[in-house]
Amino acid sequence: MQRIIVIYLIFPIVLGAEWNYLLNGMDWPDLCATGDQQSPIALDTQDSRILITPRIYFGDYDVPLKGPIFIKNNGHSIQMDIPETINGMQPFIRGGRMEGSYLAKGVHFHWGSPNSKGSEHTIDNRRYDAEMHIVHRNAKYKDIVEAVEKEDGLAVIGVLLQIVEDPTDIPTGLTKVINAVVNIPIDESNTTIPAGFTLDEMIGDINHNDFMTYDGSLTTPNCHEAVIWTVFTQILPVSYEMVSKLWELRDHWDKKMMNNYRAIQETNYRPVYHRMGNA
Ligand SMILES: [Zn+2]
């Protein structure tokens, strides 16, 4: 009997895929524990260097995606694959601190609970209700598997979401994606939605030219230090109704998928830059 209990306790640690958010990642092993360029971090607009740099160019973010769009509950978040646009091009970003182009590959989210906020990054010690990540892969690498091994492999755009009363302009694409999560309530379930919206319609009208940027990591195991982070300083207002749909999802253990954000990591004297401006 005792042996069975011991095996049961060790098993989840051995199986890398079965990590969880019970301790917000404080118990994740390997690079997640030993890395010195980890994410997320506490972003501080007063304590960062001012970055004189070109704005980020959002290529084909204004062209409708070609459907159907695949969305999955992967047991720790919801993941939307980014298909080509109707012109047959993969949306991309370049500029900022990036060299070359980075292709938009996927969107996922981190969130809290009815009683707690769940963005990963904080700005000026403030945590927001949720955070959207748009993951891009350096076009010079052939796939994500190769890119995560390179320090310039990935570029992630972070958009902080805040619940407000009567938000006026919730982006239409974002609304379509979140409305679809009622169809993927449990781990490994998936759905498709018709396309006809653009990546711009996931982000809305928030200022794309004012952002914080630094070198960091994936915020899920194996926490590869391969990410050029860009987090918009302007917050996207959303509705309680929208975010509450995420709280209804079930995770890998059929528990409520809540507080799926990683704890703040040490900055370790990394430069953090703030690009200010409207143009
Ligand atoms: Zn993420």
Note down, in words, how this protein is organized:
With 279 residues, the chain is an alpha+beta fold. The chain has a single domain (2-275), classed as Carbonic Anhydrase II, CATH 3.10.200. It is 15% helix and 27% strand. The chain is built from six helices and 16 strands. The chain has helices at residues 2-14, 31-34, 144-147, 172-179, 200-203, 240-247; strands at residues 42-43, 49-50, 56-59, 69-73, 78-81, 92-95, 102-111, 122-123, 126-127, 130-138, 154-163, 190-193, 211-216, 227-232, 236-238, 273-275. The strands form two sheets. Strands 2, 3, 4, 5, 6, 7, 10, 11, 12, 13, 14, 15 and 16 form a 13-stranded mixed beta sheet that branches. It is globular, with a radius of gyration of 18 Å. The termini are far apart. Zinc ion (ZN) binds at residues 108, 110, 133, 219.
